[in-house]
Amino acid sequence: MYSLDTLSEINFELSSHCNSKCPQCPRYDIYGHVHKDLNVTNLSLEIIKKLPLKKLKNLTGVSFVGNFGDPLMHPELDEIINFFKEQKIRISTNASLRNKSWWSDLGKNKNIKVIFCIDGIGKEHELYRRNTSYKKIVENAKSFIQSGGIAEWQFIVFQHNEHQLNEAKELSTQLGFKDIKFMYSDRFDTDDTWKVYDNNKYLYDLKKPSKQITLRKSLNTPVGEKYWNSLHRNKGEISCFWSESKKIYIHSDGTVYPCCMLGSIQSGKNIEKLMLKKIIKDYKEIDLHYNTFEQIIMSDILQKTLPETFKSSSSHPICIEWCNKNSGKYSKKHLNTVNI
Ligand code: SF4
Ligand code: SF4
After folding, report:
1. Which parts of 107-256 fold into alpha helices (H)?
2. pLDDT 10s digits, 210-225
3. Ligand number, closest to the Cα atom of 15
């Protein structure tokens, strides 16, 4: 159950703006347009400053990750970082923004770890992180690391970059990254190929890597069919992973969700959105523009209504997809882990 005392981490989507055009990012539709129903905005600094840090006695970490945007797009990021002096800050970014001097200053903060999303070396990287510059990212990473910053490299493996894993591992050590983590995309949900478009124009195919066993395959779902039916058939009890880990998510529009997965249905997912509306009823109830953080944490929605759905036949499809103990994505996390 949620309480201010026990909360250990807040995950923020600081911004739903982004400079990049990653083909499988939920901010875009399949033809490469920003979803029409995406509220493109920055989380207000005023809202962040009203968080009751003194009462959040166990809040040891905050992460700036997000579903639809990059935290470095937030114009007041430096003030936000200053606000969380007592917490460990984890920033996940495409890192192709800001200049070397900004990165060098950022590296002097001892409470910050940056996850650099670099999906390949050279032009291979830019096939997924479209619109970013590999050269600039490496320069930024060097500036950050040289001034003392703790950096981790996150590498999503596709067919076009799978030959670079060993090279990337060596390069990460040379550049001074503390770690490099390889992972598979979980978004090949109907096919092993993803057609990349930009404003309706077909560009190329993105392909799953040769060794990846997708969730769809592990559930024996035929090509072209969503894995949802198989996942639902095999579902087990729901165990709310985020509330057990004492984590919560704040969306860039100021709404508070129990996890980033439920926050991710605010754009491009009409059915899931409607089903969440049935549970929440009035989004104002979870909106920091209308309530304090404490009021939302202690609201019936988080304390009662949502937890009750876990045990009933009206569980939200996202909760089944992620947190059912038999076939949920958390129970199959190993499918996305790559060991080299
Ligand atoms: S960098 Fe992140 S937010 Fe931006 S398009 Fe890529 S996945 Fe989406
Ligand atoms: S998807 Fe549902 S069950 Fe899973 S962490 Fe989020 S709220 Fe909890």
Report:
1. 123-128, 134-146, 165-175, 215-218, 228-233, 241-244
2. 999 998 888 888 877 7
3. 1
Q: Whose CA is nearest to atom 6 of ligand 2?
A: 259
Answer yes or no: pTM beyond 0.85: yes
Adjacent-strand bridge partners of 195 = 205
Ligand 2 centroid distance, CA of 331 (Å): 13
| Ligand 2 pocket test, candidate residues 235, 239, 240, most atoms within 8 A of CB | 240
Q: Are 128 and 155 in contact (CB under 8 A)?
A: no
By CB atoms closer than 10 A (0-12, 13-18, 19+), residue 278 is exposed
| Predicted pLDDT at 233 | 82
What tokens were used for 49? 């400053």
Tell me the three-class secondary structure of 73-108, residue by residue: HCCCHHHHHHHCCCCEEEEEECCCCCCHHHHHHHCC
* Closest C-alpha among 64, 132, 143 to residue 99: 143
Percentage of residues in the chain with pLDDT exceeding 70? 100
